[in-house]
Amino acid sequence: MKTLSHYLLEHLKGYENQRELDLIISDIADLGKKISHEVQRSGLLDLHGAAGGQNVHDDEVQKLDERTNDLAKEILGVNEHIIGLASEEEEDVVDVSDGKKSGYLAAFDPLDGSSNIDTNMPVGTIFSILPSTGDIKNDFLQPSGAQVAAGYILYSSSTVLVFSVGSGVHEFTLDPDSGDFLLTNENITIPENAGYIAYNPYVLPNMPEDRAEAYRQLVLQTGRSMRYVGAMVADVHRTLLKGGFFAYPSVGSKGNYKGKLRLQYEAKPLGWLMEQAGGKTLLDGLAISELEPKELHQKVSVEMGDAGVMKLFEKLL
Ligand code: FBP
């Protein structure tokens, strides 16, 4: 089986930023190995439970959120091509430019699915890489299409790294024996009109009724079973491989509906991957390419899936 480093050498041939992307993806793979090690031992290393603070989203920060955020800053912060970091666990951007005028930005959710940590359910790390001409704060607000790389690492029965550099979506599985990420699925194409419907039914009474009805009808008219892990990385990974629909709509009360998932380091990278694999993504009801990012920690409604189910969904709306 082909190792990640071998694959990058071949796959990035001809890219003007070949060396930069190679070093950035390789560092993200190293980060994934380190976090996988911590996640597997989290119960032994007293990394379960709350760390005692809240993040910019008023979420209770878990010990593993904090630990993985530190690891991400440690590894990505010293990458010679990365000049700025943005994280779910950091209120503001972290300038690591060290005087460099241009380079790349890394936005990341160091540990997605925090509510799954203490029960050993799947969790993940999500990343989005953008070019920057030095205006770090504003350059994070580039639209989805500006991403030069994006992906995730899923920590579950095995650890997998799934990413795109703009030409297809590829999966690598961590071999616990060699410690290498090995190519297990190249050019993932989402199966159409297959798979599962994934949303938390809790949202139905807390969203606009007409859209809630479209969600109900999607299950009834497709006759498909539901699956919901409660970690976006895991629900999106299954959807990419099996087809289907994943959503987290805006919830709240009449006239005050808000998204939960974060644009820069959850919806934008995973939505881009979904489209790279032949699926479709709506953010705040708009095609992902039309959404103009406005804030670093902006929240959006997310609806994505295979082209067939999205066509039906939009017809139901
Ligand atoms: P974090 O765990 O990174 O805060 O992510 C949010 C998240 O856990 C998503 O991964 C998941 O899709 C969603 O929230 C689950 O929310 P809920 O428990 O309301 O269904």
Task: Compose a concise summary of this entry.
By secondary structure, the chain is an alpha+beta fold.
Q: Please state the structural category.
A: alpha+beta
Percent of sequence in beta strands: 25-35%
Alpha-carbon distance between the termini? 45 Å
Query: Tally the helices: what do you get?
Result: 8
Ligand inventory = 1,6-di-O-phosphono-beta-D-fructofuranose
Strand order of the largest sheet: 4-3-5-6-7-8-9-10
What is the global morphology?
A: globular
Mean pLDDT: 96
User: Could you name the ranges where pLDDT drops below 50 across 5 or more consecutive residues?
Assistant: none
Instruction: Please report the total strand number as a whole number.
Output: 19
Rg measurement, Å: 19 Å
Helix content: 25-40%
Describe the structure.
The chain has 317 residues and is of the alpha+beta class. It is 31% helix and 27% strand. The protein is built from eight helices and 19 strands. It has an eight-stranded mixed beta sheet, sandwiched between helices. A five-stranded mixed beta sheet has the order 11-12-19-16-17. A hairpin with a 2-residue loop joins strand 13 (251-253) and strand 14. The model has no long low-confidence stretch (mean pLDDT 96). The structure holds 1,6-di-O-phosphono-beta-D-fructofuranose. 1,6-di-O-phosphono-beta-D-fructofuranose is lined by residues 59, 88, 109, 112-115, 200, 230-232, 248, 260.
List the helices and strands and how they pair.
Elements: H1 4-11, H2 18-40, E1 50-54, E2 60-62, H3 63-76, E3 82-87, E4 94-95, E5 103-112, E6 123-132, H4 136-139, E7 149-155, E8 159-164, E9 170-174, E10 181-185, E11 196-198, H5 209-222, H6 232-242, E12 244-248, E13 251-253, E14 256-258, E15 261-262, H7 263-276, E16 280-283, E17 286-287, E18 299-300, E19 302-305, H8 307-316
Parallel strand pairs: 3-5, 11-12
Antiparallel strand pairs: 1-2, 3-4, 5-6, 6-7, 7-8, 8-9, 9-10, 12-19, 13-14, 15-18, 16-17, 16-19
Helix pairs in contact: 2-3, 5-8
Bound molecules: 1,6-di-O-phosphono-beta-D-fructofuranose.
1,6-di-O-phosphono-beta-D-fructofuranose binds at residues 59, 88, 109, 112-115, 200, 230-232, 248, 260.
